[in-house]
Amino acid sequence: MGVLVDHQTLRAPTEAEDWIYRIASMLAVQRMPYLASIVYNLRPVAAPGLGTIGVDRRWRVYIDFDKIELDPRANQPAKGKWSKFEFSAVLLHEANHVLRDHANRGDLHGVGLPDRLAWNIAGDACINDDLDECLAGSNLALPADGIRSASLGLDPGQTTEWYYDKIKGQFAPPPCPACEAEQQSGNDTGDNSPGSGSGGASGTANDSHGTPANTDADGDADGDGEAGDAEQGGGGSGGTPSPTTAPSGSGACEHQTGPPAGCGSGGGGKPFPCEIDGDAGDVTDSGVSAHEADLLRRDAAIQIRNHQGGSGQGTVPAGLSRLAEEILAPPKIDWRRHLRASVKSGLSWAAGKVDYTYRRPSKRTQRGGVILPSMQMPKPKVVTVLDTSGSMGSDDIQAALAEIDGICKKAGLRGDDHKITYVDAAASDLQRVNSAKDIVLTGGGGTDMRVGIDLALEERPRPHVVIVMTDGYTPWPDTPPHDCKVIIVIIREGITPEDVVDAGGRAALDLPDWAIATAVDPTDV
């Protein structure tokens, strides 16, 4: 299976190309050993004529080996080629794109196709700032004119999202006159899909090195490449395009006159026209799956954390340190989902309390006419205890009421199935609740939720589930109520379910360990 790249086809690297790729990978891991799981899982694909290096979402690295000095013994690369040290630094650049998950982060940030180049450039700024810090004092070095925060005129140490929000709209691809002319004449060759990426720049637009597309990197037109492409960066190393005028190839249409802009879909940019969809047979495999990528990122984060403060070669840039902590941090739990799960857990426990009854005799009888009891499953009875003390603000109470309403509707509880009491220092009488609009609040003094729990347990028939909604500033019963599940919902600004549930899933934050605990942030209702 081959994919056209400037009238050439993708292929597996030759023996010489594979050898220099392995050397560059080894040099990269030697300098940043904590990224070994990332670098060694990149899939090299030879892309003659591509004119740059990039990566796709499946971690396949598209490499124009004509841009690289293949002789590992050469002290100086041939004109217009990258040395093995520059190649190694560029591999680290692409590895950082997939490590930082720029492709999916762009999706989550709402980056549209026209702004993909700006997003890619924002990611380049983060990566290259960190690599400059890490590669200092080594043989490895990125091209000097690559994207940095300083080249964008922005402060260092910010996130990709922050940089993107600052430069959004500055790197939109200009229209391609040839495509527009064909469209006007009725020849529909301009496809805006990611695969074809029509609407590329005209031949006079800048290429990914930041120089006119009809000249060499040194600015002349004689083809001698005096300045050498090795110093210019290329799309894969974050070369600097001019704001408002995207490099040629940013649209990747058939009139493209230079290498594609950006680092490919894996860098969060527009897909290269040569990117493989699926398995390419003898060219490369199907790449790294999303699940495998998550595991490899987590392994890299662990290695980064272990490397910090150690005596190993290479430093850990501040940006990667923050990234590692984000990856290894416990996942943020959606309080709505956690609340629903907590209530469902209590209701399922109640519904599962099957008992024997003689109200409906069993159809199965033993010899001698002995009547066997049938089985019954009780319908859950719920009492909600709402804290209306002075420490609970109106927003907190409204948040509680909204969730009570949701609980009633989702669980199908009606009439006597669900009752509510309000508590401060004392407790109100139980009320029948079908909807939050039925609730009339009272109270406003101190807080003792034990009073409300005791009142709830006096209800007959006895409730199976008691839901306590409070800000948490209250004493709790010393012992769990018999044959009843208690769900504690802490309502407090800025709180998350992780704050009230420990690693073992048990209640924390000085809450009783026999209760099911969750939290609601009233500002997020």
From TrEMBL:
It holds the Pfam family DUF2201. Residues 382-492 form the VWA-like domain. It comes from the Bacteria. Residues 178-195, 203-216, 240-260 have a biased composition (Low complexity). Residues 217-229 have a biased composition (Acidic residues). InterPro entries: Put_metallopeptidase_dom, VWA-like_dom, vWFA_dom_sf. Residues 28-376 form the Putative metallopeptidase domain. The keyword Transport does not apply. Residues 174-266 are annotated as: Disordered. Keywords: Plasmid. Gene3D superfamilies: von Willebrand factor, type A domain (3.40.50.410). This is Metallopeptidase domain-containing protein. It comes from Euzebya pacifica.
